[in-house]
TrEMBL record:
Residues 1-250 form the EAL domain. Coiled coil: none annotated. It comes from Rhizobium altiplani. This is Diguanylate cyclase. It comes from the Bacteria. The chain holds residues 194 to 443 of 452 of the full protein.
Length: 250
């Protein structure tokens, strides 16, 4: 297809960019890290969402090449940040089925000179289900090297609390479906409270995603949620704008 051909060309010519969205400590609104988000603006097709091209890359076997280029760019950009903030990077489900993923990631970090302790990998519940043994092995190898693992979109998909019992994760990212209703829907507030209590007991860090206004931030902070992310704190921005943002915020 046209999209597939364009994606192939974009990967070969290395034009897919990475943007960064701040993650803040809710106690003081200080930036603690950034999530890397792939951005592709094709001259003919216009802006194509990663929600479209990442699954296509997985299906066509391009995901390794794409993800390696994105991680390299993200880590290189993060090396120029004025403080040692963490970098959070999304891993796709196909990567969690490929036993070569951990060594590939660690070798990129080595080449770029990026400390694995500053990297967090976001994975979804569904992705871990896919090929559980391989995924467990990859996660264990990466954590052994100091990389941290966060469970993305928590509360959606085929949630399985049982996965949390295996202590494979360092952090939970509460899906924005709950966050966006926290001040209008009692049920969402109760669910978030329960997640926070559970995470405290399991010694898991928590990020609330999709915070869009001040009242949501205040509410989450009062409930004891440690970190937040969303348009209220900053939209994803390219590496130059991110550097400017960091210099303006310190
Ligand atoms: O940025 P946006 O909301 O359009 O992202 C849509 C989806 O694409 C999200 O689920 C996000 O996690 C995913 N995504 C964005 N960048 C990457 C990436 O570099 N790798 C992978 N695997 N997924 C990404
Ligand atoms: O699946 P994942 O959680 O990785 O998706 C992250 C996506 O959510 C990013 O692509 C980003 O564009 C989007 N996003 C980030 N903050 C907000 C927000 O405050 N509101 C909405 N609607 N989307 C957001
Ligand atoms: Mn994510
Ligand atoms: Na997320």
């Amino acid at each position: 297809t046209q999209l597939e051909q364009a994606l192939r060309n974009a990967i070969i010519s290395d034009v897919i960019d990475v943007h960064f969205q701040p993650i803040v400590a809710l106690s003081n609104n200080q930036v603690v890290g950034f999530e890397a988000l792939a951005r592709w603006n094709d001259p003919d097709l216009g802006f194509v969402s990663p929600g479209v091209f990442v699954p296509l890359a997985e299906e066509r076997g391009f995901i390794d090449a794409l993800s390696e280029a994105l991680l390299r760019k993200a880590a290189e950009a993060a090396l120029s940040w004025p403080r040692e903030l963490f970098l959070s990077f999304n891993l796709s489900s196909a990567q969690l089925m490929d036993p070569g993923t951990s060594s590939s990631i660690l070798s990129i970090l080595g080449r770029v000179g990026f400390d694995p302790h500053r990297l967090e990998l976001e994975i979804t519940e569904t992705a871990v289900m896919g090929s559980a043994d391989t995924a467990n092995r990859i996660i264990a190898d990466l954590r052994q090297a100091g990389v941290r693992i966060s469970l993305d979109d928590f509360g959606t998909g085929q949630s399985s609390l049982g996965r949390l019992r295996d202590f494979m994760f360092d952090k939970i990212k509460i899906d924005r479906a709950f966050v966006s209703r926290i001040n209008s829907d009692r049920a969402s507030e109760h669910i978030i409270k329960a997640i926070l209590t559970m995470c405290e007991g399991l010694d898991l860090e928590v990020v609330a995603e999709g915070i869009e206004d001040y009242l949501e931030a205040v509410k989450l902070r009062s409930l004891g949620c440690g970190m937040g992310q969303g348009y209220h704190f900053g939209k994803p921005a390219d590496s130059i704008a991110t550097l400017r943002f960091l210099h303006e915020n310190y």
